[in-house]
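Please check this.
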Amino acid sequence: MRSLKTGYLTDFIALFFPQLCSACRESLVANEYILCTNCLYNLPFTNFHLTADNIVARQFWGKIKLEAAYALYYFNKGGKIQNLMHQFKYKGVHQIGNMLGNIAGEQLSRNELFNTVDFIIPVPLHKKRLQLRGYNQSACFAEGLAQKLNVPVELHNLVREISTETQTRKSRFARFENMQDVFFIASPEKLANKHILLVDDIVTTGSTLEACGLALLKIEGLKLSVATIAYAE
């Protein structure tokens, strides 16, 4: 419990430098962290953990074989999730990833399809982009998931060998072409006959996850599932 003196100092500082909710940008009050209480409970959850036949899963039909697919939130342009992801990816608030990973992990821990996962692997950044940003947002999300699923994160096995152009304004086919031969597996023997949960921040066309999945599924006996923070319709 904070001391009276510390409490007064914190409240005084907050008058001039208020902490804002990363989603709605309203001021946080005492005991709120990153998200205000309203956003914490009322952001647009997908509830994809409740059904195997969901929109994310369908995106990969006929492309890569998945055991399960999931996204925590719906992403809408100009909405709260876009604000949240902007703070996460470009404003240095890397703690968002761990928090959202915890929320997602709570949901997935109640889904038997994800209870057999052996390793969590985040989509890697190229070393140049990682150096520029300072952290891999997918790895932050993976660490939060790992805490709730009690599964280790494998950070250095899936490697991004080629630095690609931004995917933002590309068509689905152009995105897929842009991701060809980008990823390789450093130690495939460690992943043989394992169930891997591949995680990313946002799934739109699914081209990045598909490219990672194609590399991983070359490994003998590997089973693959995917999870993301958001699904962009």
User: Anything to note?
Assistant: Residues 7-16 have pLDDT under 50 and may be disordered. Strands lie at 69-75, 119-122, 158-160, 183-185, 195-203, 223-232. The longest helix spans residues 95-108. The first strand starts at residue 69 and ends at 75.
